Amino acid sequence: MIRKYLYTLAFALTGSLATQAQDIRTFMRNELDTLCSNSFSGRGYVDSGMWKAADYLASRFEGMRMKPVGDSWFQGFEYPANSFPGQLTLQVNGRVLQPGVDYIVWPGSRNYAGSYDLDVIDSSVTADSARLVQRFRSAFSNRKAALVYLPDSVGYLPFHKKYFTDSTLRGMILVATGKKLIWTPSKTIPKGLAAFTIKTSALPEKPENGSFLIQQKFMPSFMARNVIGMIPGKRTDSCIVLTAHYDHLGRMGRQALFPGAMDNASGTSMLLWLANYYSKHEPPCNIVFMLFAGEEAGLLGSKYYTEHPLFPLAQIKFLLNIDMMGDASDGVAVINGKEIPSKYQLLKQLSDEKYQFKEVREGGKASNSDHHWFYEKGVPAFFMFGMGGQGHYHDVYDKPETISLDNMDKVADMIINFIDKL
Q1: What pLDDT digit, counting tens, does each position of 301-315 carry?
Q2: Helix (H, G, I), strand (E, B) or coil at 198
Q3: What number does CATH give the domain 88-214?
């Protein structure tokens, strides 16, 4: 009789866990598909994508047992942003290249249109800055565009920062690289240069001429909104804060969409699942859910919040920021784990005793996500992300169908148990 009871109990618990795992996967999959749909245009700076996403997330909060922390679900703030809402065209030797796949536009580019012969600059010239700038000037004065081949040892992002803020250079530069194409937002005012970064493999053997069109729009005061809500708990004298950023890169021209599934529709979906869970299970203390905008442009939403908090930061018992929560097949990483060892050991113990992740990586201090500004203000904070997946980062391939959601049920359950033990 006892054996039968234990068997029945074990079956029930296994079934319950399996059901919860399926519920999380279904919930997160639905949110991923919604947040990464064309309706939100990559949650960026074109077609009001970020604004529409904020409205949607506020509606999700409103549908749960949640209330605003301030006068509304939103906390607005402004920052400059460069965007590419119109046409984007690049042809080399008459061959039309595909945006996002074959090339990306430098995010600080200005409007540009023209067809020019190419001054091809060998990779050996990049080691001599003065010589390289001289070649740029020579190309522009002869009504040519410059095509520079970067050696594998030179990253194109540092290269851009070094040369493309020079207001005395005016013209078109093509940067050929063998590295993965990674796009980012820009807050800078376009100066004299326009530029594309191109995969070397997409270029013809002997590039001779090019045709270029960039329709760019600079917004000196782009309006963004954090979305913030709270679920009351058993204790109201302190709170736990769960954060994620919902913004991404948006559109690059009319053709290239950056869906941002892993980064960070996945963390946003996980946060929504946790909000839904706590709307049905009273938490041990107040839990505040913060979804930040402007993370991709430099952690701007979280920085603004810490400078304009809606309640004293000292009331935050602990903050957990979740980002890139689409795959934990190789475990999870905990940034600030080395800074707050007692709380890291709590997570490690939970994993060892119940979840058995391949690794719970103990990370040091880093300013790589929205936990950073809170920790700088004295709030104990972790940044947790899943380890695993296909490695799509800031590219057009970061789509819901590339995300496995492996072990997301375990991650969510560990977060719940972690909060219970804080």
Answers
A1: 999 999 999 999 999
A2: strand
A3: 3.50.30.30
